[in-house]
Amino acid sequence: MMVDGQTLIPSMAILEWIEETWPEPAMLPEDPIQRARCRAMAQLIVSDIHPIQNSFVLAYLRDEVNAVGATVKAWVGEWMARGLSALETLALESVTNDYLIGSRPTFADVCLVPQLYNARRFDVDLSAYQRLLTVEKSCLKHPAFAHAVPEVQPDAPD
Fold first, then answer.
1. pLDDT in tens, 18-55
2. Cα distance between residue 96 and residue 67, in whole Å
3. Nearest 5°: phi and psi at 30?
4. Could you tell me how many helices (H) and strands (E) the chain has, helices first?
């Protein structure tokens, strides 16, 4: 993402920039402990789960390890499931509302929804993550999430 001629990467830096630039509605809880938990959940997704399905990791598996279709899916699925299990545990400890932390979408929710979309792309069985699926369902009712799903983007394939 380019901002004033500067490139912002990765996702967390962009989310922090949005939070600091447009503080309302806040995407971080007011309570410092809840803010830390929110950041921890988001970081778990963007640092521990998501990198496994990045194109350069998949290319390495295919080109250097000679893994093929089903093996790549199984490998990605295994590591994604481990991360989602950890996230489900955190979610069960803190969720009292429709979102992962508190009563409005946060960084954690912004990271969760596309991660579950990717999990489905790799045929990961999500049945063990009922709390995450409940949160996802709540998020997708929110207009910001509903307008961001890949299927409604102008460049979405038919």
1. 999 998 999 999 999 999 999 999 999 999 999 888 88
2. 42
3. -70, -40
4. 7, 2
